[in-house]
Amino acid sequence: MTTVQIPKKEAPKSSRYKYVPFYVVIAGIFVWGAIAEYYDIFGQGQYTAGTNFVPWGLWVAAYMWIIGLSAGAFLLSSMLYGLGVKILQPVGRFALFTALACLAVALLTIFSDVGQPFRATEIYVFGRPQSMMAWMVWLYTAYCLCLIAELILAFRTELHDWMDESSFLKRVVSRIVLLGGKDESETAQVRDSKILKTLALIGIPLAIAFHGGVGALLATVATQAIWHNPLMPIYFVTGALLSGGALLTGLVVFFWPRKDSTWHDLTVYLGKVLMIMTMVYALMEFAEFSVPLWYGYGDVRETQSLNSILFGQYWYVFWICQVLLVTLIPIALYYFGRNSPKIIGAASLLIATCFLAVRLDIVIPAYVGVQIPGLVFPNLGPNYSYSYFPDLFEWQLLAFVLAVGVGLLLLGYRILPLINNRDKIPVTKGEQ
After folding, report:
1. Rounded CA gap, 220 and 209, in Å?
2. pTM tops 0.90
């Protein structure tokens, strides 16, 4: 068994500019959204549609959605580096970088929502072990450091090559990251592989803990009956696996440079996994909704919130976005198009993008109902309203953070060795 070097083909000139309109659109959205980000940080006054009764809105739901994309992508990478699922080999580094980019965007989203974002460092000094919010911040920090360390180890071979590059930037980056050393021996590679595996195994419970912590934070709010559920952390982790895996699958299907048999087998495998995950998540949702509504047990506020999701002012978010676009259509596409990567990719991107609706259905209905009987002030102005719909400013700022996320992915795809174009394929002597 020998190896044959695959020659690197230069892209035709006509194809070099086919993505220019896409880049222009993303740049335009970024500039438009950056205006909202500026006014949110440095402006004065109220810019959101939130009220005294509905303090959390689109940005909190988007934060939960994007942080789930990060955790899901990271857990897929851990299946490769920690558990040795070899079929995921082509997407290991891509999954790690996607997880890091989504983490940065999620933190930017919640940074925009809090009133005093520059006081975030105080939680490291004054945070208490009894605080679930403090644990979230500590776990996020550990998760971010774990991600960066895994990326460095996964890119170590290419970073060694960068030391000999003509590019000054690449040489500087490689020397800083590798601390000026260049050990390419087999012993060093084995050592790095063991460290990477250890970090991936540590990262699995860490990712589950940090995103499950988001669900735990909601579950500890005893005054909100719809959240006060011990299964909420598991609910969030399952959703992260589904949405993060769907995002990664969609990116692999439509943006992978080599559409070969390995790519086909990988997308088919991911499609089967996602179909199962979609059905599992749908079953959890059915249990979450059906039991309290069927028997009418529990807090009346929980029944009120569930009724508002199913039949209230936001019924279309559940029935159209969550049931139809996130569940029924993707399951049908995964099943009937199980051997078609493009159909699998379309179903995956549908789940990844529309999963925002799932997070909206968790956050908003908890607030839109009267929590204390008689606590209604209809004549005190819009700030005393139980109704909520995101205004243009909220959508504008969300567009900004999403444009940042797309920009980070494009930048990483162009600069970093997320995809190894120098892969070698084994051939037998008779094929030479």
Report:
1. 15
2. no
